[in-house]
Amino acid sequence: MLGSSNRNRIAERREATRREILDAAWRQAREVGVAGITLRDIARTVGMQPPSLYSHFDSKLAIYDAMYADSWLAYEEHVSRELDPLPTHPRDAIRLIARVFFDFSVADPARYQLMNHRTIPGFEPTAESYAPAVRVLERGVETFGALGVTDRADFDIWVSLLGGLIDQQLANDPGGDRFSRLLERATDMWADAGGIPHRTARRASTKRRARP
Amino acid sequence: MLGSSNRNRIAERREATRREILDAAWRQAREVGVAGITLRDIARTVGMQPPSLYSHFDSKLAIYDAMYADSWLAYEEHVSRELDPLPTHPRDAIRLIARVFFDFSVADPARYQLMNHRTIPGFEPTAESYAPAVRVLERGVETFGALGVTDRADFDIWVSLLGGLIDQQLANDPGGDRFSRLLERATDMWADAGGIPHRTARRASTKRRARP
DNA sequence: TCGAACTGCCTAACATAGTTAGGAGAATGC
DNA sequence: GCATTCTCCTAACTATGTTAGGCAGTTCGA
């Protein structure tokens, strides 16, 4: 009986169309920004009439949702790849995490905007799409814990700082390298203040900045 | 000759209508969010037909622009009032600045969203409306300088951190008091790392936190 | 004071969004 | 082979910001 095989083929074709629509949406997001995405343009790109898109997505927001899930899943994978193996020096690890986060956002500002879903009016990710974002955050807490940062507040502060730095970079100096300089200094400050324990780092004590 | 007096009266009436429109816009922004503002609703509130609004504003974005300018002017005044006189203890001053910033944003999230103009698709403030924002930033640099923070990077990091903390608060814990706790810890970290000099603070030495 | 110019509002209409209704034709399944 | 399902279509609807053009009251100069 070929029923199951056929069913598979159908599902695949359906999935392919879905991906085609999402790819068109991504291309458009990168050209004109996330808010500039238009069902008509997406439809034209994939060779459909706008209402036909509704055979694949419930609404425009559902398309955003799929893109949101895409992004966080990709980011999760990206982080996993970069953090294996984890650097042994805490300060290096912290910088690496920041660098990954930064590269990921600067490489594709549209994606970054989408991942900060609050910047898109009317869009709220579904619980399912939100899950990878939560997992990444948990992974962060875990990683910091392994490096000796057990105070949750310190982690939250670090995340805030990182988000703020990236926003400032994208807003004031897109294409420049302001982020690197600020990150360098911020990491030092954080380390000096005990945010990053010196546990495995012998060199850190010799590097401590003199107080005026 | 009454010409000039008449001209004044006309200008006043015109300004009053303009204010009425902006008030309606603000009310609506607080009810349904900045993105939810609708010319039709504004017009209904002030008792006009939508196209009539164009006698007072060039476009919807022009209304946003006026609201943006309003906000930053109010903030500038707010800051000036709170920082006069400037606390003598640097750490207190830093916390006060953060507190003012936070109160101002939490008291009126719609206003905060507007001040972060990048969160509103298609809106870019005019140079004139942007000026107060620049002045406030300069004022911040100046104030920090008077407190002994001469490294511009340290100031930028502080601003990033503050923005990140507020965003995190508004996103994860609206109505809660997460911000206070994180701010406390962040200020300490910053001070310990030398971001806040102990220069003018004699009491500071007695208050210095013990390092574990 | 009279007529011209201006001002502030109006109605009608338009362009562009997202979205719904309903159907036609091909693919699929018993 | 026939009923069902699926995918796409056209037509139309609603809501948005915006433009065109006009009309009545007000202001202002000769």
From TrEMBL, chains A, B:
Residues 15-75 form the HTH tetR-type domain. Residues 38-57 bind DNA. The keyword Phosphoprotein does not apply. Keywords: DNA-binding. Pfam families: TetR_N (PF00440). One of its GO terms (molecular function) is DNA-binding transcription factor activity. The keyword Coiled coil does not apply. InterPro entries: Homeodomain-like_sf, HTH-type_TetR-like_transc_reg, HTH_TetR, Tet_transcr_reg_TetR-rel_C_sf. This is TetR/AcrR family transcriptional regulator. It comes from Nocardioides albidus.
